[in-house]
Amino acid sequence: MTRRRKSIAGVLALVALAAAPLFLSSFTISLLDYIGVYALVAIGLALLTGVGGIVSFGQAAFVGVGAYATAWASALAGYSPWVGLALAIVLTCGVAAVLGATTLRLQGHFLSLSTLAWGLAIGFLFGNVEGLGNFSGISSIPPIRIGSLALTESAQIYYLIWGVVAASLVALSNLLNSRAGRAIRALRGGNVLVESLGIDSFRTKLAAFVIAALLAALSGWLYAHMSRFVSPATFDAGMGIEYLMMAMVGGQGSLIGGVVGASIITFLKNSIQDYLPLISPGASGQLEVVAFSAIFILFLQRARRGIVPYIVDRLPKASEPVDESAADLPKRRQPPAGRTILSVDQVVRRFGGLTAVNLVSFEVRAAEILGLIGPNGAGKSTMFNLCTGALPMDSGAIAFAGEPIRRMPQRAIARAGVSRTFQHVKLRPRMSVIDNVLLGAHTRTKAGIAAGMLRLDRSEEASARKEAQAQLQRVGLGDVLFEEAGNLPLGKQRLVEIARALAADPVLLVLDEPAAGLRRNEKMALAELLRSLRADGLTILLVEHDMEFVMSLVDRIVVMDFGSKLCEGLPAEIRADPRVQEAYLGSLA
Ligand code: ADP
Ligand code: MG
């Protein structure tokens, strides 16, 4: 949807929400209150799990920490619920930060399992602390007061709850369309790409984790003062799974989906509780679970990505235009032509018993195109992974701009000015082409999470978008800015990768088989582009199999065979070298 249409839909939704208490029964209003409270958690999960790909079963426990914090502060210690709010936020986010710092480095299932363990542990903890009322919980929690008004009625706290929900939706949707949000969106699909763009994947995950916990804390705070009572059962692991269901049913990665999912699950639970006893009195507890699971499976079958994306996919798409008058992003000064940019010295890399790169040495000089060639399996891609820090070397040394890169993490090498493409294209297929390229500009921009949420990043964002558009035009993709990247043919996806690498304003561009999958005229256009980049002072290291392409383009060639360097020289020398011809079985002649 366009921003404009989104805003209109948003305003209509707000009016409907504001008017609801005038028309609805108090029972329905209190149901809506619960939905809003649950929706906050589900929105956080839409960000964390749906967008970031981090499955957390532990959100109910975060809600619990928030709820117990304010319950303790207001009912037991006699502070105002607003102090309770501050405590709930600080405590929940603090716990999330510690927990995240210790578990977010774990991969996939281990991470999810640790959130489950955390969910179980905290539920147990609430039930066993004397000062928190054991299993009977804490009651007579005071209502929230705004000035002299106490929010005791369900129709009163309704406005506060849905105000918080609306504000969260706006803030997170702004975030997703900002620099920090794009980094979160890029998490799904692995760290290698993210780090190669200079993004700290761990910090990005941690940020998403803490934001989701913050929303859970708000939910817990509202819940405690709405129901005026907390007990451990409300925050157990079963509830953690229910929150996850809400986020999934509503829509993987859709924030509105969080609200839709919370509504559907809450309404369903309610009606199941109403009707099941009629069918089978006595056994309603277990039957509820069965009916619920059946409905859930039906959802997964029919609309796996969730309801909201299912609908949105069927609406026409439009996008915010790029502001041509935005200021340019700052550009680095390229080193003088001929200076050694990259030096590779006696580098070795083994995979088990196989030596993929064996004592290879070469240099790349500023403003040249160096071709790395060799038969399949020669070790070229491995060499690239060593140069960009994607893989550690076993021995030897590589220096970029005079700095040894051995101890530098991949993202630091990227920030220093090494940008790359991958032999097996790594894009985020569900993000638009321009958003993929904007990821490349991450290191050239600064806006943080808060700036993104509050849209204080607009001028920088406009500059970055202009840059991304310019790079896409440069590679010949100026007409597909808003397509989903995954819909492009493979050859064009390679060009998106090149535009993304260029958006980082690199010193050294490392291209692994950029012409694979391109048509003849596209290859010629690519060669022309690479020549013009060289003329601008950019240095290029390139692997390519198309010999005609390589010979006509590069300044020098390094040949690898079976992990070792076979020889090095000018294109004409390499073409004439009998060893090279032998390695390629005469295919060069
Ligand atoms: P090229 O890019 O020249 O075709 P690669 O660098 O991809 O060659 O591979 C060189 C050798 O290293 C091959 O024998 C390949 O099977 C092996 N290799 C590459 N990556 C790995 C890996 N991650 N684990 C094990 N073996 C690998
Ligand atoms: Mg390769």
Provide a quick synopsis of the model.
By secondary structure, this protein is α/β, with parallel strands linked by helices. It is built from 23 helices and 12 strands. It is elongated.
Brief descriptors of the model:
589 residues; alpha/beta; 3 domains; 11% strand; elongated; binds magnesium ion
What is the number of strand segments?
12
Give helix % range: 55-70%
Strand order of the largest sheet: 8-9-10-5-11-12
- Based on secondary structure, the structural category is alpha/beta
Q: Major sheet: size, sense and barrel closure?
A: 6 strands, mixed
Instruction: Specify the overall morphology.
Output: elongated
Q: How many structural domains are formed by the residues? A: 3
Tally of alpha and pi helices = 23
Q: Beta fraction of the residues?
A: 5-15%
Instruction: Provide the low-confidence segments as ranges.
Output: none
Q: Mean pLDDT across all residues, rounded?
A: 90
Spell out which ligands are present.
adenosine-5'-diphosphate, magnesium ion
Q: Using only CA atoms, what is the Rg?
A: 28 Å
- N- and C-termini, Cα separation: 55 Å
